[in-house]
Amino acid sequence: MHDLSGFPITRKWPAQHPDRLQLYSLPTPNGVKASIMLEETGLLYEPHLVSFERNDQMSPEFLSLNPNNKIPAILDPDGPGGKPLALFESGAILIYLAEKTGRFLPADPARRYEAIQWLMFQMGGIGPMFGQLGFFHKFAGKDFEDKRPRDRYASESKRLLGVLETRLADGPWLMGDDYSIADIATFPWVRNLVGFYGAGELVEFGSFPRVGEALERFVNRPAVQRGLQIPARD
After folding, report:
1. What share of the chain is helix, strand, coil (3-state, %, to 5)?
2. Where is the GST C-terminal domain (predicted)?
3. CATH 1.20.1050.10: which residues of the chain?
4. What digits encode the pLDDT tens for the residues 60-107?
């Protein structure tokens, strides 16, 4: 019998299926990394919506799991040694789920670290830069008369897209023929950049045809299509 009652987060989001992995998230580019990975691996899980409109991420229950108040976070009742494991940070979650299932992360040590380096490339570059561009292009920052901040992030986003474009010359995915957690981390952000943020023209997205083709391959995967909608919004 799995007992998750010792975790305060379950008071706000009770587990209907305590034997399943618990996902606390929202369908944002970072949030869907976890839901897509869970859909791809077929692990049984129970999703819980963390609503930014209700400020759920700042609740004491959520902060007990992630003191950095960011989604996604997970609670796995069947963690290492059969003990529950609480985990936050999308990159760490992807690595954990890959190792738990033996999927989407190469077994060969050299290839494994190669995949992790591209995951870190997304975490340290793609996510922060695309996110800042979104702020200055679509949200409050768009009203700034000084366009230098927007242009700085647009320029850096174009450079990062160029890195992806070069990498994808070697195969359909960031690890060549092998679909991996690097792709699961990266392409939700590319999708957001040209979709939700509407910055495709600003970054001249048409100049990166391999990235566009890889994005299309990614969103056509059934598990990706499901994961992009999880957890369902209110």
Report:
1. 55, 10, 35
2. 108-234
3. 109-221
4. 999 999 999 999 999 999 999 999 999 999 999 999 999 999 999 999
Q: Is 145 exposed, middle or buried (0-12, 13-18, 19+ CB in 10 A)?
A: exposed
94 closest CA partner among 152, 35, 19, 143:
35
Residues of the chain with CATH 3.40.30.10: 9-103
On whether the CB atoms of residues 192 and 97 are closer than 8 A, the answer is no
pLDDT band of residue 234 (cuts 50, 70, 90) is: confident
Which architecture does CATH list for 109-221?
Up-down Bundle (1.20)
Asked whether the bond before 47 is cis by omega within 30 degrees of 0, the reply is: no
CA angle 76, 188, 131 (to 5 degrees): 105
**pLDDT tier, 1 (very low <50, low <70, confident <90, very high otherwise):** low
Work out whether strand 45-49 and strand 21-25 pair parallel, antiparallel, or are unpaired.
Answer: parallel
- Crossing angle of helices 181-194/90-101, nearest 10°? 140
Give pTM, 2 decimals: 0.96
Write down how long the chain is. 234
